[in-house]
Amino acid sequence: MARGNFILTALGSRLTVDIQAQVDALVAQFGLEQKSTQRLADASLLQSDIIDCIEYRLVGDSVDIEAVRKAALALGETLGVDVVIQDDLRGQVQPRLICFDMDSTLIKAEVIDELARRHGVGDEVAAITERAMRGELDFQQSFRERMSKLAGLDESVLADIAKELPLMDGVVRLMANLKRLGYRTAILSGGFTYFARYLQETLGFDEIHANELVIEKGKVTGDVREPIVDAERKAELLAAIAEREGFTLNQTIAVGDGANDLKMLASAGLGVAFHAKPVVRAQARQAISTLGIDALLYVMGYRQQDLTP
């Protein structure tokens, strides 16, 4: 049972009076007192993406924060909005490092599935990927099984796919603002360095950590160099980067969509499941499911007027 201060952020394309009333009812249900509210984004004033966002500063005694999180997630799913609650550490802790998964988080694709499709084994690999992301298969085992099916793929296919990577909605705006505001950013991906490096060059990530494909004589061999970036490795990398840069874990944010992101999300000060599978949303402390990835900026507390379009 937690005592203290909390921040609840309601986000959606439109926060109607009825939606706001239901959020107020959720707050009252758990005995939380509203210290203040502020509108961080007003859809009627935005010239590009339509986002409404209201931030509630709350205080409560003997609050079961896990019960509040589950109720907030359920309410958001019912209303088609995001309702995110977190401990209020503003003024005490300033996040400095933000680590992202890549596939289905920064881009609208699972690259390994696209590689497999080009190699004629798409259905087989996609089925394995889906089970792995739901947490039904051990990541390393499933990863090696999928990789083996790519043996013989021509290296030129990688370049073709990199040029066509579909960026996630809001990622350009998110990265432009994070760079302007001075955050250190990293990609921690179970995907491949070839594509992470492309995103680094395109969007300006400070560092990347992903799996290195072994290529011989212009062909993918089906192997990757050790160590494989799996769930444990992602969490280790987040902690190692934070320590190297002189940040505490409370100063870190992690964003991902799959089961292999859960340890990273749990380790970070703020762990956000983005457009994630139900099992991941249920276990993560925070989740964004209805908006582009730039909605993260509002969960971090930035106002519309603080941000570039």
TrEMBL record:
<comment type="similarity">
    <text>Belongs to the HAD-like hydrolase superfamily. SerB family.</text>
</comment>
<keyword id="KW-0460">Magnesium</keyword>
<dbReference type="InterPro" id="IPR023214">
    <property type="entry name" value="HAD_sf"/>
</dbReference>
<keyword id="KW-0378">Hydrolase</keyword>
<dbReference type="Pfam" id="PF00702">
    <property type="entry name" value="Hydrolase"/>
</dbReference>
<dbReference type="InterPro" id="IPR004469">
    <property type="entry name" value="PSP"/>
</dbReference>
<dbReference type="InterPro" id="IPR036412">
    <property type="entry name" value="HAD-like_sf"/>
</dbReference>
<dbReference type="InterPro" id="IPR050582">
    <property type="entry name" value="HAD-like_SerB"/>
</dbReference>
<protein>
    <recommendedName>
        <fullName>Phosphoserine phosphatase</fullName>
        <ecNumber>3.1.3.3</ecNumber>
    </recommendedName>
</protein>
<comment type="pathway">
    <text>Amino-acid biosynthesis; L-serine biosynthesis; L-serine from 3-phospho-D-glycerate: step 3/3.</text>
</comment>
<keyword id="KW-0028">Amino-acid biosynthesis</keyword>
<keyword id="KW-0718">Serine biosynthesis</keyword>
<dbReference type="GO" id="GO:0016787">
    <property type="term" value="F:hydrolase activity"/>
</dbReference>
<keyword id="KW-0479">Metal-binding</keyword>
